[in-house]
Amino acid sequence: MTLEQEAPSQSRFGWLVLFATIPTLFCCALPILFVTLGFGASWAALYSSVPVIGLVAANKVWFFAISGIMLVVAAFLAYRPGQSCPSDLKLAALCNNARKWNKRAIYMSMAVWLTGFFAAYLAVPILDLVG
């Protein structure tokens, strides 16, 4: 497999993981943010006009599990040992650039996933504990 075939597929997987974690925001983090900022009615209108948001919220356990597994796989692929770039300077630059963007996509995905996880499973228990 040449670098031109391998690097884009790894990069695409990183971006796929980013978009797979976005539903966790729609079910959990965005409603809390909208209500906190005083846009609860806007969220309610969006929720009623886009029924798939309710589907995501109803199945949030599956969304979190599948996207979490995808994050673990993506992190393993990005940080697995034994990776090397070609010795050709042009191909090495492309390889390093693809790795850099792949890792950025994974970091963004982790931030999105952790934000959704906090909103879905930790925010209410912490608020109940505090007061």
Q: Would you give an account of this structure?
A:
The chain has 131 residues and is mainly α. It has one domain. Helices cover 86% and strands 0% of the residues. The protein contains five helices and no strands. Helix 1 crosses helix 2 and helix 1 runs parallel beside helix 5. It is elongated and about 55 Å long. The termini are far apart.
Question: What distinguishing features does this structure have?
Answer:
mainly alpha, 131 residues
Q: Which word captures the global form?
A: elongated
Element-level helix/strand string: HHHHH
Number of strand elements: 0
Largest sheet, in brief, is: none
- Count of alpha/pi helices: 5
Tell me the fraction of residues in β-strands, as a range: under 5%
Helix content: over 70%
The chain-level structural class is mainly alpha
Average pLDDT works out at 82
> What is the C-alpha radius of gyration, as a whole number of Å?
19 Å
